[in-house]
Design brief:
The complex is a heterodimer. Chain A is mainly alpha-helical. Chain A has helices spanning 3-14, 18-40, 43-60, 70-89, 119-137, 141-151, 157-164, 168-186; strands at residues 100-102, 107-109. In chain A, a hairpin with a 4-residue loop joins strand 1 (100-102) and strand 2. Chain B has a seven-stranded mixed sheet with strand order 4-3-6-7-1-2-5, with no helix packed on it. Chain B has eight helices and seven strands. Chain B is flat. In chain B, 17% of the residues are buried. Chain B has four domains: 4-52, no CATH class; 58-87; 89-138, no CATH class; 146-237, Immunoglobulin-like (Sandwich), CATH 2.60.40. By secondary structure, chain B is of the alpha+beta class. The chains are: A mainly alpha, B alpha+beta.
Chain lengths: 193, 247
């Protein structure tokens, strides 16, 4: 989407035009969902992070002055939503699959849908990207965020520095460290890479 | 002759082709003569290319519909609030016995009657004056305000560090941080922020790298739609736990 068109669309959104929100959000939802998935490593959580981020964008859009790119501002919000959730859920207990739910007369075991890829799909060639995703997930938060913003979202060092409010030198050195850590973690599996 | 550690710090820039020619030759010569670094850069190239080709994932079915449902609900709330503001006071709501406005009005009326009772006993107490004071002491409509605000300083061992702000906005209009004001010694510093939104339902964390520890408490400049701004003080505290190695 050309910058001028996007600015016009954002202006319409600021005036409360529902169709403009529909168009603007549709154009970014795949990128936002991908970023959220790569950050959280979980399909359900990616959906929650994406929805919360767009709602936050809706609530704060009038504050967006257009000094930065809209995408940079949006990614900063997604990153903040992810980091906020991580902080809040760090010690939260997980749902037990053994739990029984009381219905009217009977109790039934909780059925939990796994929205992730099935074992068959993994065996069909997703092993490499799964290993990589696991290695990315083991990185510290900030390093993981930088790796994803650079490699999967295609942001420049300058843009990442803006998204994370960090000096560009810090972004470069942490990204280099993150890549070296990934190489080290994936070394035993190098036949896959 | 370049050392391994020095070369490793340049590996990313080397692979991205962002080194100046002289450094590029130095890294190249080093990785040719050092078996460990040669293997490391080969592995790094493999990882780099795998990262660049990570497959993208599709949002679930009905993601867009779910999203627009939530956005439409948010828009309805905004429009209702704007309508109420235009009308000034929703008199009809007063006469809807199940509405929250009715309940609030009833509580307020009871309170005023109660205070009126006191007025009989203590001539100096003015119930209407007290109620007016409560109403008029609130922040002006539309002015951004915070529910909670605190800050922690995480030093990096080189004089600087990261300032972590934990802030939560009061419900109402959208609130963003547009500047951070503080002192280092007698020097006043103002750091413009790019209007980062603050959540109303939980604390938002903002990490800001600084080259020196603030020696005063901090003041945030808050902004709301329509160019309305306000300031809010933030107390600087020592962190309760050690900072992570990544910070």
């Amino acid at each position: 989407m050309a910058d001028t068109n996007e600015k016009l669309l954002i202006d319409r959104c600021k005036r409360g035009d529902r169709d403009a929100f529909d168009t603007l959000f549709r154009s970014y939802e795949k990128r936002v969902y991908n970023l959220a998935y790569r950050l959280s490593g979980n399909y359900d959580e990616a959906q929650d992070i994406s929805l919360d981020s767009f709602v936050r964008v809706f609530q704060a859009l009038k504050l967006f002055r257009g000094d930065a790119n809209f995408s940079t501002w949006l990614f900063r919000i997604v990153t903040n939503v992810y980091l906020d959730r991580r902080k809040r859920t760090r010690n939260k207990q997980h749902l037990s699959l053994e739990e029984y739910i009381e219905l009217d007369e009977n109790s039934v075991a909780r059925q939990v849908e796994d929205p992730g890829p099935t074992p068959d799909r993994v065996a069909e060639g997703h092993e490499r990207s799964d290993m990589l995703q696991q290695a990315i997930a083991a990185l510290p938060d900030y390093q993981r965020t930088m790796v994803i913003l650079y490699h999967t979202e295609g942001l420049s060092y300058d843009e990442i520095a803006e998204v994370l409010s960090l000096p560009i030198g810090t972004v470069k050195s942490r990204l280099n460290r993150a890549r070296l850590t990934l190489r080290e973690k994936l070394e035993p599996l190098k036949e896959l890479f | 002759m370049m050392q391994c550690k020095q070369a490793q710090e340049l590996f990313s820039d080397y692979i991205a082709g962002q080194l100046d020619p002289a450094l590029n030759v130095s890294v190249e010569n080093h990785t040719r003569s050092c078996e460990t670094c040669g293997a490391e850069i080969a592995g790094l190239r493999r990882v780099w290319s795998s990262l660049d080709t990570l497959p993208s994932v599709e949002p679930p079915s009905f993601f867009h519909e779910n999203l627009m449902h939530r956005i439409n609900m948010e828009m309805d709330k905004v429009e209702e609030a704007a309508q109420l503001k235009r009308v000034g006071w929703n008199w009809r709501a007063l006469f809807q016995p199940r509405s929250p406005v009715f309940a609030a009005a009833a509580v307020a009326l009871l309170a005023l009657v109660g205070m009126g009772g006191l007025h009989v006993q203590h001539a100096s107490l003015d119930p209407l004056g007290a109620a007016w004071h409560l109403l008029s002491s609130k922040a002006p409509a539309g002015a951004p305000a915070l529910q909670t605000a605190r800050a922690e300083w995480h030093p990096n061992g080189q004089g600087g560090g990261t300032l972590t702000l934990y802030v939560q906005a009061q419900s109402g209009p959208a609130v963003g941080v547009s500047a951070l004001n503080y002192h280092v010694g007698s020097h006043k510093r103002v750091l413009p922020e790019s209007d980062m939104p603050i959540a109303t339902d939980h604390e938002t964390t903002l990490s800001i790298p600084l080259d020196a520890r603030p020696t005063s408490d901090l003041t945030l400049t808050l902004s709301a739609p329509g160019g309305v701004t306000a300031t809010a003080p933030v107390t600087l505290m020592e962190p309760v736990s050690a900072p992570s190695a990544d910070h």
